[in-house]
Design goal:
By secondary structure, the protein is mostly beta strands. It is about 5% helix and about 70% strand.
Length: about 240
């Protein structure tokens, strides 16, 4: 991936590196990005796979893109002193508009999510229950001062009032590695989860695949703190 200072990367490779940081990267040039990963803790788990592609060849660093995403989420919450376990499978298709420059990049996305949520035991009052097609909005971006990548994501699913927020501050290391803290806050009307952890990314696995690892503490509101671990992979083609 070349030089360690991110602002010196050509746009396509710069964005491919960012993919691992955000799991919803900016696509500039003719790059197509495949992403996958998982996260696990006693408070819940998340697994995903997706691809982001330009809509067409576009001559500038401002681009329209298309995103397709599969994911699997588990979590739990308490209601009337009873724990309810939730599992949710989702499929997303979105359109986005992204811009990039020497100081970083930003993107906005709008699309639809089909998600099926199973609850055990059943909770008729949970708005996520069952299968729904809902509107999803997302904004993400990254600032790239010298030796740093300051990244953030904000996503919202209408109707369910579900949200997912993440911030990262990564510093470069030798060998194209980046490391630093991450803070995640997510939930819907039934639960809230806060995570604080540490990320190391930039490991090369060959065939254009890059790996990141992370670990930290995860806490559902009203429950004890649990450890979490995760892996993130990105491949540009």
């Amino acid at each position: 991936m070349g030089q360690q200072q991110s602002a010196r990367f050509p746009p396509g490779r710069l964005i491919a590196l960012f993919a691992l940081s955000l799991a919803s990267p900016l696509v500039i040039g003719e790059d197509r990005l495949a992403l996958g990963g998982f996260e696990y803790s006693g408070a819940g788990s998340y697994a995903y796979a997706g691809v982001i592609m330009p809509l067409a060849q576009q001559p500038s660093d401002s681009r329209f893109v298309q995103k397709y995403w599969l994911d699997w989420l588990t979590y739990n919450y308490d209601k009337d002193s009873q724990q309810i376990d939730a599992t949710a499978a989702g499929l997303e298709a979105s359109l986005g508009y992204q811009v990039a420059g020497k100081q970083g990049w930003a993107g906005l996305y709008i699309g639809g999510v089909v998600r099926n949520t199973d609850l055990s035991p059943d909770d008729l009052s949970n708005g996520a229950r069952g299968t729904h097609l809902r509107l999803k909005l997302q904004a993400d971006g990254e600032l790239t001062p010298k030796h740093w990548r300051l990244a953030g994501i904000a996503a919202y699913i209408a109707g369910q009032n579900a949200f997912w927020l993440r911030a990262r501050a990564l510093h470069d290391l030798k060998g194209n590695l980046w490391t630093g803290p991450e803070l995640i806050y997510q939930g819907d009307p039934t639960y809230r989860r806060t995570q604080l952890g540490w990320v190391i990314e930039g490991f090369k696995l060959g065939a254009g695949v890059t790996l990141g690892i992370k670990a930290g503490a995860s806490k559902n509101e009203g429950e004890s703190t649990r450890a979490y671990i995760g892996l993130e992979m990105a491949h540009w083609f």
